[in-house]
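#structure-requests
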Amino acid sequence: MILVAGATGRLGGLITRSLLARGEEVRALVRNLAESPGLTAAGASLTVGDLKDPPSLAEACADAEAVITTANSMARGGSDTVESVDRTGNLNLIDAAAAHGVKRFIFISALGAALESPSPFLRAKATAEQRLHESGMRVTILQPNLYFELLPVAAVGLPALAGRPVTLVGEGRRLHSSVSMADVAGYALAALDHDDAAGQTLVIGGPKPVSWRDVIAAFEDELGREIPVSFVPMGAVVPGLPPMLVDLLTALETYDTPLDMSQLSDRFGIQPTALQTFVHGFVASYRQEGQPAAR
């Protein structure tokens, strides 16, 4: 049986449904049964728990052969913070899994995780990685680059689809190997099947680095129209985006993250999702859900 923590999130949900589709027995860690009817309908068993509540994790890990966790504090709030979830909560889960004899642990971390990072989020991820290496379990750590589904959608996709102008920080020329969550889910499942993935840290990106200008061009091609775009200097306010996302846009203008995925892709049999493929699917899904893109 495989325990998935973060199953109610987008990436965790993808992993859970993919596991169920291939016939795995899946237990999803949820905080509220009422929030998870889709998981039950898909065939997952549910266990109520919280990364901040160690006793609930002991019950969740009982009889589990493997744990996959995507849980993080980014989309939450209140008592869910980087300290309570990404650091202490993950440590709680790791300790519970090790204490209950879990053999395999797949941890979704983030590119740039380091104990000396200036980012509390990346420091917390690195702390969890360190605990995992000391746990005695067979561990695979995934470090994805920027997700297509998050900042590119928030900063470019949604404003463009609504017919609003796009505002970006800097010049939009920095190159980042952004990745689809579907690819990361694929690597998580593949790590379960590949014995040589144990003890490995897999850095994951898309098929080629892309800039913000590439993201804009992909949406323009898909929508068949020009998107009004303005660029503001670092430190300026970006209309419609919360300060946390503006800070991330600003940070991304200070470095590049090109990754060559050819060897890893061949090794694990994952076909990287291209930017244009993602944008096409995203726009089609947006329109299918009754939200017609502005023209």
